[in-house]
Amino acid sequence: MLSILSSAPETTWGSDTQRSGRYYAIDGIRGLFAVVVFLAHFHIQFHSLTHDKGVLFFASSVTWCITRAAVGIFFALSGFLFYGSLLKRPEPYFAFVGKRLRRLYPTFLFAFSIYLLFCLLFPSTSKLPDTLEARGVYIAANLLMLQGLLHPPMIVQSWTLTFTCVFYVSVPLVVWGFRRLSLMPKQRLFCLLGLWCVALCSLQVSPVMSNGIGFITGMIVAESLPWLAIKTSTAERRAELMAGVLFIAACVMLYAGFQWHTRSLGAAMPRELFSFYAVACRVGALSLTTVILFTLALEGNGLMRRALSFGPLAALGRLSYSWYLMHGIALKATVYLVQNTLTRFHVESSLLFVPALLLAMLFAWAIASGTYHLVEAGRLSIGPHHVGVRNTLSAAKPQVKAG
Fold first, then answer.
1. What is the pLDDT of residue 214?
2. Rg (Cα) of the chain, in Å, rounded?
3. Please, which residues have CB within 8 angstroms of residue 382's CB and are 6 or more apart in sequence?
4. Cis omega before residue 123 (within 30°)?
5. Percentage of the chain with pLDDT > 70?
């Protein structure tokens, strides 16, 4: 069991140009939704500058609502890449899990240390509990990647790492089970679809699998991508049109459901938004959008891939983990500068919204880039230096015979 057993079927990848396009498109997806998450957190800090009205507030509110899908996209990327990779190139269980943790921890520990230092230097903004014992438990829980159980974790957005680690220890077992049963690709696909349905039904009992559905969706993409590529290659323009309509519909759905919350971020959400039927509709629509997005980005040659392969977007995708952990510091620095500006100069606050956004993005890029080169891919990394998505993606798509 611990060796994930036999070899996987051969994979045909096409030309070097096609492979390069896939790499950039994957990085582009990461970069796009890293920006969306950043804009949502910017909205939380700065929406009051707009007096909660006008075009700027509307645009900021839309990005905040769309962020409801961003985490699922990142989880789906992990499901697609690592499930597909294990199917193609089996690894010993503990070697795989150890490799993934060595990838996560150096950058996380670096970011956590900086946040902890800020808590100690500025007690008024500290998230640390009052007693020494409670502080020890809180810090240990963060270091053990149990942020998803804390309210709030030291780095707010790091709650996703809890679910990512659960996926890392689970996906090799799923692949091992499929191999033990000698399942064919179509059989694996039906099993994953069944697992997706079970996870959806479990939301009636607990919301925890709302995060697991993202990983399962990515695994479904890994199994169905060769078949979907054949189908979309004969009607790519219609597929892209359908994807555009579906994407807009998903954005409208998210905005309609959550726009009221953009003005009252601290308010509890009404129960009807989290009824089983409302959640099932959202999850189903977002999962379908994810499958189509991945298919066109990885196998298409149209507008979707070209847009996602845009150079700066792909570059941001390569350092998205550092950006994800460190952009909060850039936002805090920008809050400090904006507050000082408003205190010293009597200016209309809405005039500072766009400059604050540009300044925060510049800070975030500089901090994330420095963290990436110093820690994530630099001297402080553990094991082989990070090489982006290329090595993983080269093994991420299992072969499925047509028909």
1. 93
2. 22
3. 102, 105, 106
4. no
5. 86
Dist CA 267 CA 256 (whole Å): 17
Give pTM, 2 decimals.
0.85
Q: How far apart are CA 368 and CA 156, in angstroms?
A: 17
CA count, 13 A, side-chain hemisphere, 231: 11
**Cβ pair 257, 285 in contact under 8 A:** no
Q: Element (H or E) spanning 62, and its range?
A: helix 54-88
Instruction: Tell me the H-state helices in 345-379.
Output: 353-371
Instruction: Give the residue among 300, 296, 276 at the shortest CA–CA distance from 288.
Output: 296
- Count other Cβ atoms within 10 Å, centred on residue 266: 6
DSSP state of 373: I
Residue 16 predicted with pLDDT over 90: no
Strands (E), 52-126: none
Q: Position 382: which residue type?
A: I
Residue 309: strand, helix, or coil: coil
CA distance 208 to 149: 11
Every domain of the chain and the residues it spans: 16-393
Whether 268 shows a pLDDT value over 80: the answer reads no
Residue pLDDT, tens place only, 323-347: 999 999 999 999 999 999 999 988 8
The answer to whether 282 and 257 have CB atoms below 8 angstroms apart is: yes
Task: Compute the distance between CA of residue 350 and CA of residue 108 in angstroms, rounded to an integer.
Answer: 35
- Biggest CA–CA distance in the chain, Å, is 71
Rounded to an integer, what is the distance from CA 37 to the centroid of its chain? 9
Q: Which residue is it, tokens 């990394």?
A: 381
DSSP 48: G
Task: Give the C-alpha separation, 136 to 144, whole Å.
Answer: 12
Q: Could you give the CA distance from residue 313 to residue 52 in angstroms, rounded to a whole number? A: 29
Question: Among 9-18, 59-68, 234-243, 363-372, whose mean pLDDT is lowest?
Answer: 9-18
What tokens does 168 get?
């890392």
At residue 383, does pLDDT exceed 60?
no
What b-and-e string marks burial along 15-41, b requiring 16 or more CB atoms within 10 Å of the CB? eeeeeebbbbbbbbbbbbbbbbbbbbb
Model confidence band, residue 124 (pLDDT cutoffs 50, 70, 90): confident
Mean pLDDT of 86-111: 93
